Automatic annotation (TrEMBL):
Reactions accelerated catalytically: RX + glutathione = an S-substituted glutathione + a halide anion + H(+)
Protein name: Glutathione S-transferase
The protein's role, per its UniProt record: Is involved in the conjugation of reduced glutathione to a wide number of exogenous and endogenous hydrophobic electrophiles.
Pfam families assigned to the protein according to its UniProt record, in alphabetical order: GST_C_2, GST_N
GO biological process, one term: toxin catabolic process
EC number: 2.5.1.18
Ranges annotated as spanning the membrane: none
UniProt organism field: Paspalum notatum var. saurae
Residues in GST C-terminal domain copies: 94-220
Domain (GST N-terminal): residue spans on this chain: 8-87
PANTHER family named among the record's database cross-references: GLUTATHIONE S-TRANSFERASE (PTHR11260:SF531), GLUTATHIONE S-TRANSFERASE, GST, SUPERFAMILY, GST DOMAIN CONTAINING (PTHR11260)
Main localization category: cytoplasm
Length: 235
């Protein structure tokens, strides 16, 4: 079956530790869409992943009625549009608000992943610079939170939405980075609104079961490093 029919089966190809995969699971749970999770093996991409995302060869991939949708932010928008009857909306109703939320989601993706990867690996000498990059990005996002939320609990208002999911997916890795470096990432003094928002986000019913535990992420980071080193030795 090839269809965007809302009743067609939904599968997610990904790994539990990926913040980009977490986004997709949160969006589907928020919409109440049942899905099958196809867990990728560490360091070895499945044929299904390679065939479904031949351009980037990255997870997540959403398969809806057998058709692949790639790139997590594209998938969030797709889920919103393919399941229109299921409340709540993921993207804001207002076009200007949509543009603002997309802007900040793209900003988070431009600034956070590389710096978080550096913190995870604790690369000698690069750690302080990476921590500063994350802190500077979070300071900007603290201002964005004040503008977007207008005093309400989430970027999207009274419930989580696109930007909450996009930024919130990093919270597990913020906490893992805190354990690895011994330094606070979501600082209650520097970014009090974001620190409180992150706690609220993680408690949300669509999030709590799929937000990876920080301790497991620390172990995962070590296992990934070992797998990459073994692969490098073989080639
Ligand atoms: N921009 C992509 C990023 C996806 C991404 O970086 N996925 C990682 C896992 S966290 C991946 O598949 N890495 C394997 C690779 O790049 O070869 C998205 O938002 O979906």
């Amino acid at each position: 079956m090839a269809s965007s029919d809302a009743t067609a089966p939904v599968r997610v190809v990904g790994g539990w530790a990926s913040p980009f995969v977490t986004r997709v699971c949160v969006a589907l749970r928020l919409k109440g869409v049942a899905y099958e999770f196809l867990q990728e093996k560490l360091g070895k991409k499945s044929q299904l992943l390679l065939a479904s995302n031949p351009v980037h060869k990255q997870m997540p991939v959403l398969l809806h009625g057998g058709r692949p949708v790639c790139e997590s932010l594209v998938i969030l928008q797709y889920v919103d549009e393919a399941f229109p009857g299921a409340a709540p909306r993921i993207l804001p109703a207002d076009p200007y608000d949509r543009a603002v939320h997309r802007f900040w989601a793209n900003y988070a993706d431009a600034k956070l992943p590389t710096a978080l990867r550096t913190l995870r690996r604790m690369v000698d000498g690069d750690g302080a610079e990476a921590a500063e990059q994350v802190a500077a990005a979070l300071a900007r996002l603290e201002e964005a939170f004040a503008d977007c939320s207008k005093g309400r609990p989430f970027f999207a208002g009274d419930d989580i939405g696109f930007l909450d999911i996009a930024l919130g997916s990093y919270v597990g890795w913020f906490r893992a980075a805190e354990r690895i470096t011994g330094q606070t990432v979501l600082d209650e003094a520097r970014t009090p609104r974001l620190a409180a928002w992150a706690a609220r986000f993680c408690e949300h019913q669509a999030v709590s079961r799929v937000m990876p535990d920080a301790g497991r992420l620390v172990e995962f980071g070590e296992a990934l490093r070992a797998a990459l080193a073994a692969n490098a030795q073989r080639t």
